[in-house]
């Protein structure tokens, strides 16, 4: 998707478009969690397998539409308005196909700004997967929600994050268009908001203890600021290397998604067999600490300058 955003979206509109594109994951979670909870309560076909059939089938349908309607570049689109194509091609970075020497892997892996993105994404993903994979368990074992309540309230942080992400990203683009913030300052500001908000929400949940409504207010309220990430590090790849934005995003996102199994594994070691409030507080402190520490690394080493290796020099 980053490769397509680099080809299709003018620089001053990328935060907004990225929020629309990538926040789809949050919106999908908002829909899928309560729907899955409802399906699991049914006796038809065993209940829970229905969730796999439904969302797997929707994925196949989506893929068919993707094949029909999506084009790599404006130049390849058969029905684009000529004025729109001219506007896009005049504003996005040009790719030099003739002098393309391939992906500069060594330069990428030794690029400190690239590692800054990867590391902060790992911290944010740790917090994200703590919510995604462990919040239902916490709500069941500690807050004592039933299955359908659990599914509904687990979706609230993603709903609020989706809405806030759309608003913040549009605001970030407006600030950039008026030159009130430099691109680097914008990346760092909104990335900090995206890390600080969820971290404070975990700390707030610790403070709220077993107050169910207060815990949900913290996670869905302050946690919603995670949506600012689309104006933060998520657009930084394109600034560093427009030609290799997709490659960079693939690398950093792969590193971040490693937290998809690391976070549940570590959390399991902390709480398994000891489902106590104190153990869950340790889980929340850990997520908040990792999130903020990795953001500090990003603040120190991030860059919004196109790297020499992106232009074909090392």
Automatic annotation (TrEMBL):
A GO molecular function annotation here is: transmembrane transporter activity
What GO biological process terms does the UniProt entry carry, in alphabetical order? monoatomic anion transport
- Family annotation (InterPro entries): MFS, MFS_dom, MFS_Na/Anion_cotransporter, MFS_trans_sf
TM region(s), chain numbering: 20-39, 51-71, 152-177, 189-208, 244-271, 283-301
A cellular component annotation (GO) from this entry: membrane
Q: Which SUPFAM superfamilies does the entry mention?
A: MFS general substrate transporter
Major subcellular site: membrane
Mode of membrane association = Multi-pass membrane protein
Q: Which Pfam families does the entry mention? A: MFS_1
Does this UniProt record's set of keywords contain Transmembrane?
yes
User: Which compartment or compartments is the protein found in?
Assistant: Membrane
Does the UniProt entry include the keyword Transcription? Answer: no
Which keywords belong to this entry? Membrane, Transmembrane, Transmembrane helix
Q: Where is the Major facilitator superfamily (MFS) profile domain?
A: 1-306
Return the protein name.
Putative inorganic phosphate cotransporter
Q: Which organism is it from?
A: Apis cerana
């Amino acid at each position: 998707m980053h490769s397509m955003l680099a080809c299709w979206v003018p620089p001053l509109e990328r935060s907004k478009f990225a929020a629309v594109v990538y926040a789809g994951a949050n919106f999908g979670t908002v829909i899928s969690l309560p729907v899955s909870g409802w399906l699991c309560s049914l006796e038809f076909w065993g209940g829970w397998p229905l969730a796999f059939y439904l969302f797997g089938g929707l994925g196949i349908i989506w893929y068919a539409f993707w094949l029909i309607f999506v084009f790599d570049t404006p130049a390849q689109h058969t029905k684009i308005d000529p004025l729109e194509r001219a506007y896009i091609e005049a504003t996005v970075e040009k790719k030099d196909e003739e002098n393309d020497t391939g992906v500069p892997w060594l330069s990428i892996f030794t690029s400190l700004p690239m590692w800054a993105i990867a590391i902060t994404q790992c911290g944010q993903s740790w917090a994200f997967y703590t919510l995604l994979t462990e919040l239902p368990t916490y709500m069941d074992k500690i807050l004592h929600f039933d299955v359908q309540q659990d599914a509904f309230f687990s979706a609230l942080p993603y709903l609020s994050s989706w809405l806030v992400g759309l608003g913040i990203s549009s605001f970030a683009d407006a600030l950039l268009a008026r030159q009130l913030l430099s691109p680097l300052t914008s990346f760092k500001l909104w990335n900090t908001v995206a890390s600080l908000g969820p971290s404070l929400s975990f700390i707030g949940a610790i403070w709220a203890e077993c107050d169910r409504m207060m815990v949900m207010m913290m996670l869905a309220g302050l946690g919603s600021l995670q949506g600012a990430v689309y104006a933060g590090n998520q657009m930084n790849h394109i600034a560093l290397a427009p030609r290799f934005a997709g490659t960079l995003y693939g690398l950093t996102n792969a590193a971040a998604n490693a937290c998809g199994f690391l976070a549940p594994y570590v959390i399991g070691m902390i709480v398994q067999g000891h489902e106590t409030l104190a153990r869950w507080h340790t889980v929340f402190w850990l997520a908040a600490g990792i999130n903020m520490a990795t953001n500090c690394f990003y603040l120190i080493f991030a860059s919004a300058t196109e790297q020499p290796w992106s232009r074909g020099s090392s």
